[in-house]
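> call design_seq(struct)
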């Protein structure tokens, strides 16, 4: 706690905010979440390109990628990954490859998503005021620690798929927007205050799963006083969304105009094979396919190219894929041995050869007129 106290004392000093982190060349963020790579490599995975072993971070940069997303859990007792040490390693690899970083705070000891937002065990019994203070201090401590190592992220998510109430349980619980706004604004303030004194002043993202939920959530957030953010992040998985890609584009255009924020598809995925290579159940299969995009390596690439063009045409600022490095290995998860996602990664089955999906990163997308 001494480090937190010192950090808070430092950040309490008055400082003039520096400009927000610059956007990539062409103003378009193209990349992927590589949070699984360290774990997969520890499990024996060897990623290949043209038959030769390759560093996925260096490969993504070489193919035109400019941003890597990385998740962080508070205190996950069930895994040694996605804690601050692992996140530090991932960010160091990202910066060494010459790409920007999007740090994704889940504010949980486990997966926080559109179905659930479970408070970290250490904060679960605190009242809202105390939780907000803990969230603020934790956010600043993580960012301050990274900044001291030259690893400050260029963008920060205050929560992951926060359709339900932040640290509020399951999705069917009615959101208490007074509490929700208090917690979200504590995280936002922590990022803003850190950015005033850090080497990089990050953009702030709020993230909602599936485009059909964007308008209602952000309308409620604005009414509750949650307004100080720069980017709206949207997860788009056709399997779990009622919207077509064209309707996603309409949502992006409307959200950009209505909330005066940039909009990015911060999660999406598409299978390159209808089945995987292990007994662990695949999350994306035939139920995830769109007409014209078969479950083939080329179909996966074409989906990403066309989706990105749709985002650009709607005024969006990019696409970030989830999760290209989660290949099949002999390691076990809570869901089985192997991966639930190997048929939607960017590396093929068995030998983990790089797929054409990487090519979407190097395209130059120009907004088309109506």
């Amino acid at each position: 706690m001494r480090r937190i106290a010192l950090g808070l004392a430092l950040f309490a000093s008055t400082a003039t905010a520096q400009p927000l982190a610059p956007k990539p060349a062409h103003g378009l963020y193209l990349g992927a979440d590589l949070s699984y790579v360290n774990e997969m490599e520890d499990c024996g995975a060897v990623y290949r390109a043209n038959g030769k072993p390759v560093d996925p971070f260096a490969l993504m940069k070489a193919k035109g990628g400019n941003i890597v997303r990385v998740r962080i859990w508070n205190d996950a007792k069930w895994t040694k990954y996605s804690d601050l040490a692992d996140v530090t390693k991932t960010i160091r690899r990202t910066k060494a490859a010459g790409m920007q970083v999007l740090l994704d705070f889940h504010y949980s000891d486990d997966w926080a998503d559109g179905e659930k937002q479970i408070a970290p065990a250490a904060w679960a019994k605190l009242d809202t005021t105390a939780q907000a203070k803990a969230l603020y201090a934790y956010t600043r401590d993580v960012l301050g620690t990274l900044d001291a190592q030259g690893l400050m992220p260029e963008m920060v998510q205050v929560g992951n798929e926060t359709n339900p109430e932040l640290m509020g349980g399951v999705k069917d619980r009615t959101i208490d927007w007074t509490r929700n706004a208090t917690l979200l604004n504590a995280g936002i303030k922590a990022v803003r205050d850190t950015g005033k004194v850090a080497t990089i002043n990050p953009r702030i993202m709020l993230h909602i799963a599936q485009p059909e939920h964007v308008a209602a959530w952000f309308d409620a957030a604005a009414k509750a006083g949650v307004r100080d953010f720069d980017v709206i992040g949207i997860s788009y998985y056709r399997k779990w969304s009622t919207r077509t890609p064209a309707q996603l584009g309409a949502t992006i255009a409307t959200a950009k105009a209505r909330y005066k924020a940039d909009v990015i598809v911060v999660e999406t995925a598409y299978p390159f094979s209808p089945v995987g290579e292990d007994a662990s159940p695949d999350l994306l299969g035939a139920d995830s396919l769109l007409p014209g995009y078969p479950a083939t390596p080329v179909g996966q690439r074409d989906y990403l190219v066309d989706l990105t063009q749709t985002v650009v045409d709607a005024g969006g600022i990019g696409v970030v894929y989830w999760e290209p490095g989660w290949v099949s290995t002999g390691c076990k998860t809570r869901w089985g041995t192997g991966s639930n996602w190997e048929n939607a990664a960017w590396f093929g089955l068995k030998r983990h050869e790089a797929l054409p999906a990487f090519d979407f990163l190097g395209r130059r997308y120009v907004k088309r007129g109506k």
